[in-house]
Write a structure and sequence with these properties.
The complex is a heterodimer of chains A (305) and B (391). Chain A is mostly helical. In chain A, the strands form two sheets. Chain A has a two-stranded antiparallel sheet with strand order 1-4. Chain A has a two-stranded antiparallel ribbon with strand order 2-3. Chain A has a domain of 206 residues. In chain A, a hairpin with a 2-residue loop joins strand 2 and strand 3. Chain A is globular and about 60 Å long. Chain A has eleven helices and four strands; from the N terminus they run H-H-H-H-E-E-E-H-H-H-H-E-H-H-H. Chain B has 391 residues and is mostly helical. Chain B has two domains: 92 residues, no CATH class; 263 residues, ABC transporter involved in vitamin B12 uptake, BtuC, CATH 1.10.3470. Chain B contains 15 helices and six strands. In chain B, helix 5 packs across helix 10, helix 5 crosses helix 14 and helix 7 packs antiparallel against helix 12. Classes of the chains: A mainly alpha (305), B mainly alpha (391). Chains A and B meet through helix 4, helix 9 and helix 11 of A and helix 8, helix 13 and helix 15 of B.
């Protein structure tokens, strides 16, 4: 029993970290731009494909294939996805900044379709699932009879590092201060001489880099990646960000952990729970929003008359 | 009051001529876009459409003139519309594919009109229209398959079941709003779809097969329709049935728009707190919007189930709800005519883009994004309410 418990605990933490990273992107972009970037999950899903393609290209260029190429390709892919995020903002999303919220949502859903189809067409045999290896293999140590893998450790360490870096960046750097100012009040921030174009660029880059990391970790966790993983990744990440409270970073992390928790719980303790896991997840989402309409850690906005 | 005939106030004959000519042009365009097959012909027709909207945008008096003509010759316009709708299957003839597209487009028009009560009139996001559609389809199909209940009886039962679902989704809407409410409806939609996908009595992912065709006065809808010696394919039955549903939906929408309920919804959209201060029961009208949406969507679902005689959870996913939402936004929020045009275009377009084979979804996504950027207010933006009097 303890073995099962520890094993599920590890699963929960791993999955929770991945969802939290996805949710941070949604929350960050919403906080600054007031736009739901629904294709964020698809942007994240491009990362494993780009790394696979890069590793392939490197291997053929040198003439020797090996797992080392993937390790080299991953940081490049993360950076590239950051640039893709900035490009999407420039081409599409910024035009819906002042539009009604639902229009931005519909536009970014359409953008998600475009990204998915581009993956499918540009990647060789893009319609099929592609195997994605564990980024690190092997077991690190044992806790009461359960071996903890290096991969789980990597996920946790990477998540904590990214969150700390994001926190330090937002609190202690001038650009972070500008981002916070713009998310507080864009117009006043402009009056204070903050160039919002730069703020948006930085926000999208950071959110997409964090999303790309989540996408890579998820593909590595599942051992496989597919062009349409982004739909579910987007829905779950968005849900995590919303039940945590949009715009709140601790909320996004909390939301990710809760959603992963209910998923793991359903799979472990409910018979046939694996096929019903989404039902449990979204029932929880409904319940949370009925009792906390602005999310768990969201600011309740008092309406001014 | 100068009595002179200006462009915006057409004379009786001009109005009649315009009403008839514009509807015939519309029907001809619909026929052409259903008929053509090659990719570049479709693109050409789209360009023609784009040019039309460009003209509308640059020369706003065309729109005013059209509205005035239809208002002036409203009876004649309605008769023309009825004749066009009834005659269309005769023109199409034995081309069942065209009829099939028209039926699906009409059902989507009903769904888009249903969502329009919420999104257009009251600006309440709802991503669960697809789920209400699915509930309608499943309830009626299960009743027909397991208990042999006739189509005409399952129709109201399915609508009632879906309305109940609408009330249930409506309840959280009293507390949550905007993006949070959008997520609640997304969650309801996913839960329903996943349950349909997992229960054994709904057939699981395989869905339900062998839904019997309805019959009316001894005429089975699976048989070809024979009118005055003309033999129309069996799809024509469902074409007329769904056309009747569209008419019901339009009349409902029109009456609701003109009623106190429609006004209350518009007041909610403009400013919720101001509406509350005016004594409007905000919670009730929000829940009512959800219920009306689910009610109409269930009708569409029932007809769909009996038409294709095979349903599966894949027909009612989150993306279906997003498509319906796109139809409303692209067509023009709170504009009945615009919403119908949006539904037809977005149903027919992906089919016609089959000429681009594998690239059609990509093309579709690009078209939607481009459209939202170029004309964010929709094809036919909503107009100011008019209360008679001066034109």
């Amino acid at each position: 029993m303890t073995e099962l418990l520890v094993q599920q605990l590890v699963n929960w933490i791993t999955l929770g970290c991945i969802y939290a990273l996805l949710a941070i992107g949604f929350s960050l972009i919403f906080g600054v731009l007031n736009v739901i970037h629904f294709s964020h999950g698809d942007v994240a899903t491009t990362a494993p494909f780009i790394s696979l393609a890069l590793a392939q290209a490197l291997a053929t260029a040198v003439g020797a294939s090996g797992p080392a190429w993937l390790i080299l390709a991953v940081p490049a892919a993360v950076f590239a996805v950051g640039l893709i995020g900035v490009l999407l903002d420039k081409l599409v999303i910024r035009r819906f900044r002042d539009a009604p919220a639902m229009m931005a949502l519909v536009a970014t859903v359409a953008l998600g379709i475009v990204i998915r189809e581009l993956i499918r067409h540009l990647y060789p045999q893009g319609s099929n699932p592609h195997a994605f290896p564990r980024l690190v293999s092997g077991m690190a140590f044992e806790v009461s009879g359960v071996a903890i893998s290096w991969f789980a450790l990597l996920v946790v360490v990477l998540t904590v590092a990214l969150v700390v870096m994001l926190f330090v960046f937002l609190r202690l750097t001038p650009l972070g201060l500008r981002i916070r100012a713009a998310s507080e009040d864009r117009i006043v921030a402009r009056m204070m001489g903050i160039r919002d174009a730069r703020v948006f660029r930085a926000t999208f880059f950071i959110a997409s880099v964090i999303g790309a990391t989540a996408g890579l970790l998820f593909a590595s966790y599942a051992g496989v990646t597919r062009f349409d993983f982004g739909v579910m990744a987007g829905l779950l990440g968005f849900s995590a960000a919303v039940i945590g409270g949009l715009g709140s970073m601790p909320g996004a992390i909390l939301g990710g952990l809760i959603i992963a928790g209910i998923e793991v719980l359903a799979q472990t303790f409910v018979p046939d729970g694996a096929s019903y896991r989404l039902v449990f997840v979204f029932l929880l989402v409904i319940a949370v929003l009925i009792f906390r309409p602005a999310g768990l850690l969201g600011r309740t906005v008092m309406e001014k008359v | 009051m100068q009595g002179s005939v200006s462009l915006a106030a057409p004379g009786k004959a001009a109005a009649a001529a315009f009403a008839i000519a514009s509807q015939l042009c519309g029907a001809a365009f619909l026929y052409l876009i259903l008929k053509v097959d090659g990719g570049w012909q479709v693109v050409g027709l789209l360009a023609l459409l784009g040019f039309g909207f460009y003209l509308l945008e640059r020369l706003p008096w065309i729109g005013d003139y059209a509205l005035a003509s239809f208002a002036r010759a409203s009876l004649l316009a309605m008769v023309t519309a009825a004749v066009v709708v009834v005659a269309f299957p005769f023109v199409v003839g034995s081309n069942t594919y065209m009829l099939h597209l028209l039926i699906v487009a009409q059902l989507y028009a009903v769904l888009a009109l249903a969502l329009n009560f919420q999104l257009g009139s009251a600006n309440i996001p709802n991503f669960a229209t697809g789920a209400s559609y699915g509930i309608g389809a499943y309830v009626s199909a299960l009743l027909a398959i397991n208990f042999g209940i006739s189509f005409w009886l399952t129709l109201p039962v399915a609508a009632l079941a879906a309305t109940l679902f609408g009330f249930i989704i409506g309840i959280p809407s009293m507390r949550t709003r905007d993006t949070y409410l959008a997520l609640v409806t997304i969650a309801f939609g996913v839960v329903v779809q996943q349950l349909l996908n997992n229960f054994s009595w709904t057939g699981g992912p395989n869905g339900l097969v062998g839904i019997p065709a309805p019959s009316l006065f001894g005429h089975s809808f699976a048989d070809p329709l024979v009118i005055f010696g003309w033999k129309l394919p069996s799809q024509a039955n469902f074409y007329y049935l769904s056309a009747a549903l569209v008419v019901v939906a339009i009349v409902t929408a029109h009456r609701l728009h003109g009623s106190r309920i429609g006004l209350a919804w518009n007041a909610l959209r403009a400013d919720e707190i101001a509406a509350k201060a005016q004594g409007i029961n905000v919670a009730w009208f929000k829940v009512l919007a959800f219920a009306v949406d689910a009610f109409l969507a269930a009708f569409a679902g029932t007809i769909y189930a009996f038409y294709v005689s095979y349903i599966s959870p894949d027909n009612f996913t989150f993306l279906v709800s997003v498509t319906i939402m796109t139809m409303v936004i692209v067509g023009g929020m709170d504009n009945i005519f615009g919403v119908i045009v949006g539904a037809f275009l977005l149903t027919i377009l992906p089919e016609k883009l089959r000429a681009f084979a594998d690239y059609r979804l990509l093309f579709f996504g690009v078209v939607i994004i481009g459209f939202l950027m170029i004309r964010p207010q929709g094809f036919f933006p909503q107009r100011m309410r008019r209360y008679g009097g001066d034109l």
